[in-house]
Design brief:
The complex is a heterodimer of chains A (about 220) and B (about 350).
Chain A lengths: L2 H30 L16 H11 L5 H27 L1 H11 L8 H24 L1 H6 L2 H22 L5 H18 L7 H18 L5
Chain B lengths: L6 H7 L4 H14 L4 H13 L3 E7 L5 H7 L4 H10 E6 L7 H14 L5 E5 L2 E2 L8 E2 L2 E2 H9 L4 E5 H6 L12 E2 L10 E4 L6 H14 L12 H4 L10 H6 L9 H4 L18 H4 L40 H31 L3
Helix pairs in contact in B: 2-3, 2-9, 3-9, 5-9
The chains are: A mainly alpha (about 220), B alpha/beta (about 350).
Chain lengths: ~220, ~350
């Protein structure tokens, strides 16, 4: 078994299994935790909870005026990075084929040249995010291993994907194997680190919205 | 058995001019991308060389490799290889049979000790003492050891001899192994492919005869001149790959327009071979040109890489079961963790 066989077979199987285990474990255990009852009385004119949740989520999509200047670069860069990741992962034909193998669903792919461009921008935006983390004194103080490692496992698939496309640095089978191994690393780390926010962000922001709504805060 | 005439003289007797031989040598040199002076040396050297004594051993194989060499459309070229070599033993091609055939092998070995080349097609079964393939009462393993003991070099022809091939495919009932796993103390060349490209065999043998040394080999011991690049590196459909234009079935609009066959399972990106440049049947075509993806036949274990029609970017593991089981265990663990948390809270709130 060569490196590529290992990456396509045992590595991805293990990584996807760990991912499925971890995500299921965290979501179910959080969901079943005893819910703290909100002691505050439900305010007059509060909307149904689900509307509160949707509003809570929508409101947090963009910073409020007073914070706009301070938060603008982080916000915009965050969008660039997240949309970039999504376009690359869901738009490249090779990725769609992988997902079709998993879920049986497929959709039209984007031109590969476009994906390469988006990938380069995404890489730049990740670099900028790291630079901010390292230079902003407050951000630096509150950053832990979790933050840096989550950054790294996101960075690697894009970097190695670009290397594979450009056939740089090693024979192609090795480059492809390294790309798949980097994705395996991402999948394994995902449920246990900060990347889990991809799921939890909907819960946390929704919950915040529900609490505000109940207490009469208009978002 | 040992013929002192040069290849040029022998061919001249058969009405093949020196000029034709030089052209053929130049052709092989060009295929191998030899520098001009070396290509010329190859052509000249061929004419003046003595025929190389070759003992050809066939083990667990389908005879496709021999077919590839002998049944091509341009007999002048591939038949020439038989003029380059003195084929002293080849079960499929020799007239002799039984004891006479074995005697021919042994006498060739004696007459050319230390100078003959052993060509092997087919893998060697070693399970249960190698009983799964025997010739004249001897196992393939014994014959291989005995025949190569005094050989100058060994050439494994085809993926079975080079990497185990189809007999070696899961579950490998006969314990088939490649020649290189048994013969470790001789110069060895693998010319893989299922079957290998005839020109790759001819070119390598011609090189060996004229220069008296092995050509440059890659880490799988394949001549770099034929196996230095992937199918994908030289594929004429590559521009479509780079644009992301893929045929979705063998007869859709994309297929008719000649788009890339990646989605239909092409393994060209990870397969090192010369098909797109040398092509088959005297340069007529190659599989991708005929509309089918590359199977990856010149690579180890090509039979067990998740299926010929599964795209390269798909996982080869049996995901459904393990991922499903992992998710179920995750849900169970989640429920248990939450129960423990509730239990603790209740205990705490009861003030225990
Ligand atoms: C298990 C899932 C994945 C598989 C099987 C996979 C496979 C591939 C393959 C086969 C290529 C094409 C290489 C080439 O054309 O030579 C590629 C490119 C790429 N992959 Fe992945 N990949 C996966 C996940 C990811 C993830 C999660 C990311 C990060 C978002 C990523 C980022 C990239 C990038 C940036 C490229 C280069 C695209 C381009 O420039 O055209 N991949 N991937
Ligand atoms: S048909 Fe195969 S070898 Fe040719 S470009 Fe497509 S993937 Fe590469
Ligand atoms: S195209 Fe691929 S499968 Fe076909 S003969 Fe060449 S290497 Fe083998």
């Amino acid at each position: 078994m060569d490196l590529l066989d290992f990456a396509r077979g045992p590595a991805l199987t293990t990584a996807l299994s760990v991912f499925a285990f971890g995500v299921a474990w965290r979501l179910v255990s959080l969901w079943l935790l005893p819910w703290a009852r909100d002691p505050s009385a439900r305010r007059e004119g509060a909307r149904p909870a689900w509307i509160g949740a949707v509003r809570g989520f929508a409101r947090h999509l963009w910073p409020r005026k007073p914070f706009a200047r301070a938060a603008m670069v982080t916000t915009v860069n965050g969008y660039v990075m997240h949309f970039g990741l999504a376009i690359v992962f869901f738009g490249l034909a090779q990725h769609i084929l992988f997902l079709r193998g998993l879920f049986g669903l497929a959709w039209p792919n984007l031109p590969s040249g476009l994906i390469s461009g988006v990938a380069v921008v995404t890489l730049g935006s990740l670099a900028l995010a790291l630079a901010r983390r390292l230079t902003d004194p407050v951000l630096r103080l509150i950053s832990t291993f979790n933050d840096y490692f989550s950054w790294l496992v996101t960075f690697l698939p894009i970097a190695t994907g670009l290397l594979a496309v450009s056939h740089l640095g090693a024979p192609y089978p090795t480059l492809l194997a390294v790309h798949l191994l980097s994705v395996s690393l991402l999948l394994i780390w995902f449920p246990f680190g900060k990347l889990m926010h991809s799921f939890l962000i909907f819960v946390t922001r929704g919950e915040t919205g529900i609490t505000y709504n109940r207490r009469g805060v208009v978002l | 058995m040992t013929d002192e005439r040069t290849i040029g003289e022998l061919l001249a007797q058969r009405g093949i001019s020196r000029r034709a031989l030089l052209k053929y040598g130049a052709y092989l040199g060009a295929l191998m991308a030899l520098p001009p002076w070396q290509a010329r040396a190859l052509a000249e050297g061929l004419a003046n060389a003595r025929r190389q004594s070759v003992i050809w051993l066939s083990f667990q194989e389908c005879t496709g490799c021999t077919e590839s060499l002998t049944r091509s459309f341009t007999p002048t070229i591939e038949h020439l290889i038989f003029d380059l070599i003195s084929l002293d033993y080849h079960e499929t091609l020799q007239a002799a049979s039984g004891f006479a055939a074995e005697a021919a092998r042994l006498s060739a070995m004696r007459a050319n000790a230390g100078k003959y080349v052993v060509v092997v097609d087919g893998s060697v079964p070693i399970k249960d003492g190698g009983v799964y393939a025997t010739i004249a009462g001897k196992t393939n393993l014994e014959i291989l050891r005995e025949t190569t003991a005094q050989a100058l070099a060994v050439i494994s022809v085809g993926t079975c001899a080079s990497f185990g091939g189809i007999p070696h495919a899961d579950p490998n009932p006969t314990g088939a192994v490649p020649v290189s796993e048994i013969i470790t103390d001789k110069p060895l060349i693998n010319i893989s492919g299922c079957p290998p490209i005839p020109e790759a065999m001819a070119g390598t043998i011609a090189y060996l005869i004229t220069f008296g040394k092995l050509p440059d080999l890659d880490e799988l011991k394949r001549p770099k001149s034929f196996f230095g690049e992937t199918i994908h590196d030289r594929c004429y459909r590559r521009p479509f790959y780079d644009k992301g234009l893929f045929a979705k079935s063998f007869d859709d609009e994309g297929a008719r327009r000649g788009w890339c066959l990646y989605e239909l399972g092409c393994k060209g990106p990870v397969t090192y071979n010369a098909c797109p440049t040398v092509k088959w049947n005297g340069g007529v075509s190659f599989p991708i040109q005929s509309g089918h993806g590359c199977l990856g036949c010149s690579e180890p274990n090509f039979w067990d890489k998740g299926g010929f029609y599964h795209p390269l970017s798909t996982s080869t593991g049996s995901l459904g079961k393990s991922v499903g089981a992992a998710a179920a265990i995750g849900i169970g663990t989640g429920v248990a963790a939450a129960m423990v948390a509730r239990h603790r809270r209740n205990k705490a709130s009861r003030g225990e």
